[in-house]
Amino acid sequence: MAHRISSCDINQGFTSSPVWASLYRNASSRCTAADRHKLPTVYWDRTFVSNGGLISYGTDLTDQHRQAASYIDRILKGEKPADLPVQAPNKYELAINLKTAKALGLIVSPALLARADKVIE
């Protein structure tokens, strides 16, 4: 019986590794420390922006997991890993926290807001 893997399953597995888990577990305290010292911050994942960070710009991890799954599928169907091309991420996300920007006394340009994939107000 086939089991369909959801992006939620993949992300939980990804963040369950000890290194990644420690980075994400402390996301809120990292953002709070940056706010306390009035430091504008740019992170690699929007989880930090949801926890009070100013901006994140990085790859869409769900999309990267899909790319990896397609490689696994190709390998399981008999292709040699050495014959597969190297792939770069093809989707990036920009997230902005306007509440944090306001607290830091920053004005985010309308052009930057228009390009953002997620804006937290």
Please describe the topology of this protein.
Layout: H1 7-15, H2 18-25, H3 27-36, E1 42-43, H4 46-50, E2 55-59, H5 61-76, E3 92-97, H6 98-103, H7 110-115, E4 118-120
Parallel strand pairs: 1-2, 3-4
Antiparallel strand pairs: 2-3
Task: Describe this entry's structure for a reader.
- Helix content is 50%, strand content 13%.
- With 121 residues, it is α/β, with parallel strands linked by helices.
- Strands 1-2-3-4 form a four-stranded mixed sheet.
- The longest helix has 16 residues, at 61-76.
- The relative contact order is 0.14.
- Residues 1-16 have low confidence and may be disordered.
Question: TL;DR?
Answer:
Helix content is 50%, strand content 13%.
Provide the structure class.
Answer: alpha/beta
Distance from N terminus to C terminus (CA atoms, Å) equals 44 Å
**CATH C-level name of the domain at 7-60 and 93-120:** Alpha Beta
By DSSP, the count of extended strands is: 4
